[in-house]
TrEMBL record:
The keyword Lyase does not apply. InterPro entries: PUA (IPR002478), PUA-like_sf (IPR015947), PUA_sf (IPR036974), RlmI-like_PUA (IPR041532), SAM-dep_methyl-trfase (IPR019614), SAM-dependent_MTases_sf (IPR029063). The keyword RNA-binding applies. Residues 4-87 form the PUA domain. Its EC number is 2.1.1.191. Coiled coil: none annotated. It comes from Parabacteroides faecis. It comes from the Bacteria. GO terms for molecular function: methyltransferase activity. SUPFAM superfamilies: PUA domain-like, S-adenosyl-L-methionine-dependent methyltransferases. GO terms for biological process: methylation. This is 23S rRNA (Cytosine1962-C5)-methyltransferase.
């Protein structure tokens, strides 16, 4: 198959020679042919040397690399990439395990498929395209999923309305590519939860906090726990299984609170230790007393673009400062940032500034990140987006 060709400016091929999976628009010298957004293109250095093949797109990132070798982007390509990713999840003890049927199967650049995310919930794969190229390939990807997963796969739900570039005017609608509506109860480390992949945030659940929830469970015994930005209550029911005395879940979304209550009831029916509140996080924190000795702060991304980074860091400082002020002496704070544009150093500085403002003695117990089914491509350090600290507050 003949693909359009992109030629880079002199010395602009260095990042590709280091296997970075993006080509920026400013690096392009010329284009042979007239590629449209989402087309597969070949990338060449100024010396006419082949460098890579990938999806063309409009914007600062002009090409997302699919392969650094000349390859046909066909059914075999998708099947092989998905099989490699699935084998890794089996090696990690996540796929095909009795007490866990929830994991990330494809994590974009981390699985050498930039622009694609696939999460597994029991027998359902939820697919998200973050690029036009992946959107156009969705049916081929669905067929590859069926080939690799076989009978264990009953549904593929495509959920990309909110993640595709809006300027592309694709008119994409979320819906099933395979199977139909089912009410799967997903299982994570033996705990059950309902997933609303049709209307929920992301793919329906925050799979990336699995190991951090397990860590929280080990600290929960005898504690009064506050789970801020609780979404569907993941940290809350881990805290309850860990033996927390009380657990309060807070989220501004009444729908999220309803799902939290449903999930708690699935695992701990009629348990009086849990209460949930649909309320703004900052308002709740401001008015609460020093009632909690274990607080979880897991807010949505405060910054999705670098131009709002300063405001985001102020938000993290403010949020953590209130928690430091209110938490009981000897309390433990789990605090996170899931903003990719917020570096580990920036996040730490925001939290450290908040600690200094409180005047309390604070120690780091753990430094947290995303789990192994959200792998970071060693050539793409930007993929390390989840940052977390577990802090002991005297």
């Amino acid at each position: 198959m003949n693909y359009c060709k992109i030629f880079l400016k002199p010395k602009k091929e260095e990042s590709l020679l280091r296997f970075h999976p993006w080509v920026f628009s400013g690096a392009i010298q010329s284009i042979e042919g007239n590629p449209e957004e989402g087309d597969v293109v070949e990338v060449y250095g100024a010396n006419q040397r082949f460098l890579a093949i990938g999806h063309y797109q409009i914007g600062s990132i002009a090409v997302r690399i699919l392969s650094f070798k000349q390859a046909a982007i066909d059914a075999d390509f998708w099947t092989n990439r998905i099989r490699i990713a699935y084998d890794l999840r089996r090696e990690l003890g996540l796929a095909g395990v009795e007490n866990n049927n929830t994991y990330r199967l494809i994590h974009g650049e981390g699985d050498n498929l930039p622009g694609l995310v696939i999460d597994m919930y029991a027998h359902t794969a939820v697919m998200q395209a973050h690029s036009v190229g992946m959107h156009y390939a969705r049916h081929n990807i669905a067929e590859a999923l069926k080939t690799v997963l076989g009978d264990s796969l009953q549904n593929i739900y495509y959920k990309s309305e909110a993640t595709l570039p809006y300027k592309a005017n694709l008119g994409s609608e979320d819906g099933y590519l395979y199977g139909g509506e089912v009410e799967d109860i997903a299982i994570e480390n033996g705990l059950k939860f309902c997933v609303d992949w049709q209307k929920g945030q992301k793919t329906g659940f925050f799979v990336d906090q699995r190991e951090n929830r397990s860590l929280l469970e080990k600290y929960a015994k005898g504690h009064s726990v506050l789970n801020m930005f609780c979404y569907t209550g993941g940290f809350s029911f881990y805290a309850m299984r860990g033996g927390a005395e009380i657990v309060h879940s807070v989220d501004s979304s009444a729908k999220a609170i309803s799902l939290t209550n449903k999930n708690v009831e699935l695992n701990f029916p009629g348990d009086p230790r849990h209460k949930a509140f649909a309320e703004d996080a900052f308002k709740y924190l401001e008015k609460m007393g020093s009632n909690y000795d274990l607080i979880i702060l897991d807010p949505p991304a405060f910054a999705k673009h670098k131009n709002v980074l300063r405001n985001a860091l102020q938000g993290y400082r403010k949020l953590n400062a209130i928690a430091f002020e209110k938490i009981k002496p000897g309390g433990i704070l789990f605090t996170f940032s899931c903003s990719q544009v917020v570096s580990k150093e920036n996040f730490r500085l925001a939290v450290f500034s908040a600690a200094a403002q409180s005047g309390r003695s604070v120690r780091i117990l753990h430094q947290l990140t995303q789990p192994a089914d959200h792998p970071v491509n060693i050539y793409h350090p930007e993929g390390e987006y989840l940052k977390g600290l577990v802090l002991y507050v005297e």
